[in-house]
TrEMBL record:
Coiled coil regions, renumbered to chain: none
Pfam (any one): NAD_binding_9
SUPFAM superfamilies, per database record: FAD/NAD(P)-binding domain
Cleaved signal peptide residues: none
InterPro entries: FAD/NAD-bd_sf, HpyO/CreE_NAD-binding, L-asp_N-monooxygenase_NS-form
Name listed for the protein in its UniProt record: Adenylate cyclase
Positions of the UniProt region annotated as Disordered: 549-571
Ranges where the FAD-dependent urate hydroxylase HpyO/Asp monooxygenase CreE-like FAD/NAD(P)-binding domain occurs: 15-174
Length: 594
């Protein structure tokens, strides 16, 4: 059941800060585990979030219906299944497409996903045992205080007295951030010279009204934030598509987009899996992670971890190629697999693949995938527009052609690898970006729209390693991809999410937590116990009463919801935290009763 008031002081009190998908997923796991683990004298669960429970901020109803999810409706679930490695019970439930009655291949808009998340929340609340009550506080949490061994105080905006909590779980989701040095300098320059500078932000929250029709805008970032920007500044301003042609409204700016790679993220794969799945993990599993964690001197990601990742993804790729497309290979799979497993270096693997896979297009080259424009030069800006459209068209064709189903096998390999790497803690930002670029790109229709916008001249490509300078009262962008070309604009948009760092989080709660002794990684993530999510201090001690889940921690998972039957790491984490919370509160309830 649900209520809005605070519970009595005699009952155990749990505060969950953040009621979006992660907080909702934790509540679902509490409901699933409570019948077996919690037979205490009632429990009050306080959800603190200024936004509606379930949807939270990112999936709230108050956003443009033009913005889509980034996954097929059949690939989105909030419910566990038999593939999730956890101690708690499986509680199956509908995927988004089953719940909404959508075609499974639909890319639903975010408002529909928000309604699905609200339904999941309501179901979790309804499934809580009698005596457990949920209270939603539509406010922001400002700070957490209290002794390690005593009740915590959670201070809320606009409330003079804190919530008292036996345990606190931070499920804050994505964070806003204060400007870093470079962004602060650009913002200052823009203010001084009357320019427009939009720093990293959630595109749906950005005020785009200052981007003038017909004016050039430099856009740095070619991922999902850019796709949202592209949609809101074209269809969102009255433009429309007639087949493969974009018909402008006349209100669009001209977007000059570039990034480190200079290309958009790879399109979502547009066909279904069939046949045998690759037996993963094979070369990067629990045993390998245990060995890395046991090294007295620690490990280096590039030296020690990346070779295992490469071998795992290569195994997924070639398993599919050899078993489903044997006509494109020169040896039997059993022979290749034996030699591949025995290969001790990237050079040996490369020699083996060259001899066994005749067509270079059938070989997995992760370096080329990561930086497709490295060393590529175009004679003119217009020539590059034509060249990058060809690149996108090729990517769309390949990602929708089951003859290249080894790509989908690599996607499954990426999911497996991500699930293992979570245990290693903070391994730096590069891996997360690489994963998103290959595995979490835009829907195919969005890239077809990008092509139409490029042909219409509304989007212009700048290139890889785009440099942005502020000089002469303008922003200037250039790239080595087109030597000698640059563009000037009075507006700059940083089309990417803020970095999830504790020190620069605009949310004072996390900064206060760090000041109170919580540990950060070198990249600014909150350190947590990999087993149950308890917050660690600078000496490595786990706080007995504070937990954290989400992308601001060093145990960040690829998403709070995931594709069915892929062993979602976030589900595993939610279950472990829920069980630790219930065990603690059960013991506290028993002491109180005694």
């Amino acid at each position: 059941m649900s209520a809005t008031g605070a519970g009595g002081l005699g009952r155990p009190q749990l505060v969950i800060v953040g009621a979006g998908p992660r907080g909702t997923g934790l509540l679902e796991r509490i409901a699933a585990n409570a019948p077996d683990l919690y037979a205490g004298s009632g429990l009050d669960i306080h959800l603190v979030d200024p936004h509606e429970p379930g949807a939270g901020r990112i999936w709230r109803a108050a956003q443009s219906p033009l913005l889509w999810m980034n996954s097929h409706a059949e690939d989105v679930t909030m419910f566990t299944d038999e593939t999730v490695t956890m101690k708690g019970p499986v509680r199956e439930g509908p995927t988004l497409h089953e719940w909404a009655g959508l075609d499974g291949r639909t890319f639903a808009d975010r408002q529909i996903q928000g309604r699905y998340l609200r339904w999941v929340y309501d179901r979790a609340v309804a499934e809580l045992p009698p005596g457990i009550t949920v209270h939603h506080h539509p406010r922001r949490a400002l700070r957490v205080s209290g002794p390690r061994e005593g009740r915590q105080q959670v201070w809320l905006e606009g409330r003079p007295r804190p919530l008292l909590a036996d345990l606190v779980v931070l499920a804050l989701g994505h964070l806003d951030a204060e400007l870093g040095d470079e962004q602060a300098e650009l913002a200052s320059y823009a203010a001084t010279h009357g320019l427009v500078h939009l720093p990293p932000d959630f595109t749906a929250d950005s005020d785009l009204t200052s981007l003038e029709p017909g004016a050039p805008v430099v856009v740095r970032g070619f991922g999902l934030a850019f796709v949202d920007l592209m949609v809101l500044l074209t269809e969102g301003r009255g433009g429309r598509y007639e087949g493969d042609t974009y018909v402008p409204s006349g209100r669009e700016p001209v977007l000059y987009v570039g990034s480190r790679r200079g290309v958009p993220y790879h399109a979502k794969i547009g066909y279904d899996w069939s046949g045998e799945r690759p037996p993963l993990p094979r070369f990067l599993g629990p045993a390998e992670v245990d060995e890395l964690l046991a090294r007295p001197a620690g490990f280096d990601f590039r030296r020690d971890v990346w070779p295992l990742v490469e071998k795992e993804l290569g195994f997924a790729h070639y398993h599919r190629l050899f078993t489903v497309h044997p006509g494109r290979t020169a040896v039997a799979w059993a022979d290749f697999e034996e030699k591949y497993a025995a290969a001790a270096s990237a050079v040996e693997i490369q020699a083996l693949v060259s001899a066994a896979v005749p067509d270079p297009a059938d070989r997995l080259d992760l370096a080329a995938l990561d930086r497709p424009l490295d060393g590529v030069r175009y004679a003119s800006h217009e020539e590059f527009q034509h060249g990058l459209r060809g690149y996108v068209e090729h990517d769309l064709g390949r990602r929708h052609d089951p003859r290249h189903s080894a790509d989908l096998s690599v996607f499954l390999g990426l999911l497996s690898v991500y699930g293992q790497l979570i245990r290693l803690g903070d391994i730096g930002p590069w891996w997360h970006g690489f994963f998103s670029y290959l595995a979490s790109g835009p829907p195919g229709p969005r890239l077809r729209q990008l092509l139409a916008l490029s042909r219409a001249g509304v989007v212009r490509f700048v290139g890889a390693d785009m440099a942005v300078t502020a000089e002469g009262a303008v922003f200037r962008a250039s790239s080595p991809t087109v030597p000698g070309f640059s563009v000037e604009a009075r507006a700059l948009v940083e089309a990417r999410l803020p970095e999830p760092t504790v020190g620069r989080a605009r949310d004072g709660l996390l900064r206060e937590l760090a000041a109170d002794g919580a540990a950060e990684t070198p990249d600014g993530l909150l350190r947590v116990d990999a087993g149950d999510g308890r917050v660690l201090d600078r000496s490595g001690r786990a706080h007995p009463r504070r937990f954290a889940l989400g992308p601001f921690t060093d145990a960040r998972a690829p998403g709070a919801f995931t594709r069915p039957r892929t062993g979602g790491p976030a589900f595993r984490q939610n279950d472990a935290t829920a069980r630790a919370v219930l065990a603690f509160l059960r013991e506290r309830s028993g002491r109180a009763a005694a």
